[in-house]
Design a protein that fits this description.
Largest sheet: 7 strands, mixed
Radius of gyration: 21 Å
Number of domains: 2
CATH topology of the largest domain: Rossmann fold
Helix content: 40-55%
CATH class of the largest domain: Alpha Beta
Number of helices: 15
């Protein structure tokens, strides 16, 4: 499914040089979220074979995936054998900006670029992280969100707050208006740097930024009054819930506030089963939005 967060024509394939180890691992394990894994392997192989520096980086940044990456390159078809019609690539990748191209690939560089675009779009949720400033306008869940939705979930005044998977700081900067301290835990380096720079530029002094995954938060037990997240929970429900509960104080709040989407969101029976309260509203795009909160009792 295309998120429409990036125009791939504006991104170099070198964007992959900014991926983190965990992102590379997820990309390789899932074949870039594509249903047709064989097509993804072929297109990624063509792109990596033409970009050996990127292939080297991915293999060395994520050594547990080095064999898979080497296989993509070694199994990549020769350009003539890999030729596809533009229609096939466009339909399968959701490519933007390619409709004016000729119906067939006419030269090697064009064929390589189409493979690169296919690969970029297959992980557009990672690629957008290489340009954090663009997220405010390109990502619907940021663009259409009202910070009052966060403030309605819990009283942040004077609290010590953790934002897990802080991204470009949507929740972090909103919480900083009321909280005593906000700690932004974010595993993507480009996003951490963006939050730090934005806080400095706006003279916001109650934000601290550090690395951390939702399943391995670098804090002692019972550190925070409020632990919040937006687009983090869902890969390992019980483990994630246990970890954010661990770092939250007794009587504190866990908040899940994903922002508004241009598509309807779904209810989360997994969070409800773990004791979270589910709240529904119609978002700024006229679509269903579900947010959640849980009072921590230890």
């Amino acid at each position: 499914m295309s998120l429409n967060w990036i125009d791939p024509n504006e991104y170099s394939f070198n964007s992959f040089l900014l991926l983190e180890r965990f992102q590379i691992r997820l990309m390789m394990d899932s074949c870039g979220w594509r249903n047709d894994s064989e097509k993804w392997k072929r297109e990624m192989g063509v792109a990596l074979k033409a970009n050996p520096v990127v292939a080297w980086y991915l293999a060395h940044r994520c050594p547990e995936c080095s064999r898979q990456i080497d296989e993509l390159v070694s199994n990549a078809p020769e350009i003539n054998d890999a030729d596809l019609s533009d229609t096939e690539l466009n339909d399968s990748a959701g490519c933007q900006g390619l409709a004016n191209s000729s119906d067939t690939v006419v030269n090697e560089q064009e064929r390589i670029r189409k493979a690169e675009i296919y690969a970029l779009l297959s992980v557009e949720d990672f690629v957008i992280h290489t340009t954090p400033k663009a997220m405010a306008t390109n990502c619907d869940y940021i663009r259409g969100w009202n910070k009052e939705r966060l403030f309605e979930l819990a009283d942040l005044s004077g609290k010590t707050v953790l934002d897990v998977g802080a991204g470009s700081g949507r929740l972090t900067f909103a919480a900083a208006e009321k909280a005593k301290w906000v700690y932004a835990s974010e595993p993507v380096g480009t996003l951490r740097e963006f939050i730090r720079d934005k806080a400095c530029e706006n003279n916001i002094t109650n934000i601290r930024v550090l690395d951390g995954l939702v399943t391995e938060l670098p804090f002692p037990d019972n550190t925070f009054d409020i632990v919040m997240s937006g687009h983090v929970l869902g890969d390992e429900w019980e483990k994630e819930n246990a970890e954010i509960t661990r770092v939250c104080k007794n009587g504190g709040w866990l908040l899940n506030c994903p922002g508004d989407s241009e598509g309807n969101m779904c209810s989360s029976p997994e969070l409800v089963a773990l004791g979270w309260e589910e709240i529904h509203y119609i978002g700024s795009y006229g679509k269903d939005v579900y947010i959640h909160r849980k009072l921590v009792e230890k």
